[in-house]
Amino acid sequence: MTNTAVTSARADVGELNRLMALMTGDEKHGPAATSTLDALWVLYDRVLRVSPGSVDAPGRDRFLLSKGHGPMAYYAVLAAKGFFAEELLPGFGSYDSPLGHHPDRLLVPGAEIGSGSLGHGLPLVVGSVLGLRAQGLTDPRVWVLIGDAELDEGSNHEAIAYAGPAGLEQLHTLVIDNASATFGRPGGIASRFEVAGWSAETVDGRDHEALYAAFTRPHPGRPRVVVARVESKNA
Fold first, then answer.
1. Confidence band, pLDDT 50/70/90 cuts, at residue 217
2. Lower CB density within 10 Å: C or N end of the chain?
């Protein structure tokens, strides 16, 4: 694949709120969903090299949604980009809908993993990068979106500690920080990654240009993390 992002949008960013409104029944996870909306849009609109026609291509970029609860924003972006028809959105969470309260990779076009328990995505993305390397596929970039509260899970810290010294340059982590973590991080979330050898940056999670710049900043020889700060879910 080329180094330019696939941007064959079926809808634009202005459509996302309308698409989100088609999904009801999981209002308690509304803040979890809306906290990811801007970052997901920038990734799919301007960064990720994947499209409905390349979901099985070996050279595609991979995106893993570890923060799988409250997936309405994810579904809205996938529908906006044409991965599936928006007519599926009103059935969200119903018995016969492919769009569950957690995405299922076997049912949702474009989904790379099925998500459930928090803390699995970052270890999975480490394994994905190692698998690509073993196949000689060094061009695809692999992204994972996690929530700040997921950093309460020890599995993430094992992955962080491994990925930096291993120089997993293909690995990109997006942390959505909506102040929901139980434990604080001395120096902030980014510092936890930096001490393990990662390239790290913290940005306004609602600023599309700042997100794009952070997502595309070069980081030779190191994995990359972008911490996107948004309003507190309890605000």
1. very high
2. C
